[in-house]
Amino acid sequence: MNRHTVIIDTGPLVAFLNRKDAYHDWAVYQLSNITYPVFTCEAVISEACFLLKKFHNGAESVLELIERGLIKISFDLEEEIERIKKLVSRYENISISFADACIIRMSEQSRNSNVLTLDSDFKIYRKNRGNVIPVIMP
Fold this sequence. Notes:
By secondary structure, the protein is an alpha/beta fold. It has a single domain, classed as 5'-nuclease (Rossmann fold, 3-Layer(aba) Sandwich). Helices cover 45% and strands 14% of the residues. It is built from six helices and seven strands. The chain has a three-stranded parallel β-sheet with strand order 1-4-7. A two-stranded parallel ribbon has the order 2-3. A hairpin with a 3-residue loop joins strand 5 and strand 6 (131-132). Helix 1 (10-17) packs across helix 3 and helix 5 (77-90) crosses helix 6 (98-109). The radius of gyration is 14 Å and the shape is globular. The two termini are 24 Å apart. The mean pLDDT is 94. This is PIN domain-containing protein.
């Protein structure tokens, strides 16, 4: 990941691809004003494909963004499993998702990253030693 990294969460990805989503216009605007590629993890891709499965070409549209190089998968769970376990344990009281834990870890690995999200839990989550995770959210 580079200096000006955007890490995308499930919500904006789904909103971008679903014109009926309440945040569709916001997601389109945000994604038209960033430098590509955006980065994410396989857990986010899995969630997005699942949430879009009832839409015509929903899951395929997610995968095409990867194929076109607009989204990069830059997370290796095997290398990061210990940190993910610690994050899941730390935030078990708010039922952190596996995808959120991976995104937190990605933000720890890239000092100058912003997380593009609709998830208000990212206002609670902290990276490294209590640092706020910079987010782009409505």
